[in-house]
Amino acid sequence: MRAVRHCADAAATESAGEDFAGLLRPGDVVLLSGPLGAGKTTFVKGVARGLGVRERVTSPTFTIVRPHACHNSRGIDVLHHADVYRVASLDEVYDLGLGELVEESAVAIVEWGELAAPAFGEDVLCVTFVDEGEGRRLEAEADRGELAGWAA
Fold first, then answer.
1. Is 64 left (phi over 0), alpha (psi -120 to 50) or beta?
2. pLDDT band at residue 152 under the 50/70/90 scheme
3. Is the pTM of this model over 0.85?
4. Neighbours of 73 (CB within 10 A)
5. Percent of the chain with pLDDT over 90
6. Within 13 Å, how many C-alpha atoms sit on residue 63's CB side?
7. Which CATH architecture has domain 2-150?
8. Who has greater pLDDT, 44 or 101?
């Protein structure tokens, strides 16, 4: 299933992320793709808020992966936020062990996910960010009917 959501600004993008968090299940992997400055980290901030992350969420561009403790009643204890912008190859993705981030009680979100996609297989959720000049369009793809409720 494919769903599209238009976001006029950063606040709407963060809100879209918070709403998207409601669709997530333990063990999910979300791959984000789009140009630099498209709002990927802003979206993750919203997802984090929706999962009950209490600490500040920033881009893990230099650390590659940041785990965040989640506080919710949905069985998701950890949000692994990864950014592979500085990773040069799929071999490096495998060396980092990103595929092992998927845990029974965790969710992994990977910025620049198109590079890391083969490490996770086909059972992933994908969100593509498209700059529209006056905002952005978020295109989500997953094998879930709940996506229809996320699109606004």
1. left
2. low
3. yes
4. 6
5. 62
6. 10
7. 3-Layer(aba) Sandwich (3.40)
8. 44
